[in-house]
Design a protein that fits this description.
6% helix; 1 helix; mainly beta
Length: 121
């Protein structure tokens, strides 16, 4: 699984005694409908229960959206519903990391600082 890979070169620089705030990894992301790929920096996040992609990034890159049968409402860490609209679409992609390749669907969500967030199970 991608989230279990540790890549020391992709970790943020830490001063002595600082807590790790963000861990990122460069991944290849391929649109399965067009077999076109790009390299992006993804955030590894132990608080996320899945894979999410920014709606702005999805639009800019021209990913083909797949409509969900029912919207998924997102809860924040504090248990409150997220202010952004619910997740209504996913995109099907191939994710590449070093020699690993995985076909998966990523939920499309608005209002994210990061382009791609990989949840750690």
């Amino acid at each position: 699984m991608l989230a279990r890979v540790t890549d020391n070169t992709s970790m943020c620089n830490l001063d002595k005694g600082d807590l790790l705030r963000e861990v990122t990894v460069k991944i290849g992301l391929e649109r399965v409908d067009m077999q076109e790929g790009i390299t992006v920096e993804a955030l590894l996040d132990s608080g996320v229960t899945g894979l999410v992609m920014s709606s702005e990034f999805t639009r800019k890159q021209g990913f083909k959206l797949k409509k969900l049968d029912r919207p998924m409402y997102v809860r924040n860490m504090d248990g409150l519903l997220n202010k952004e609209r619910p997740i209504e679409h996913t995109v099907e992609v191939n994710i590449y990391y070093q020699v690993h390749r995985e076909r998966t669907e990523i939920d499309v969500i608005g209002g994210q600082k990061w382009t791609i967030i990989l949840g750690i199970p």
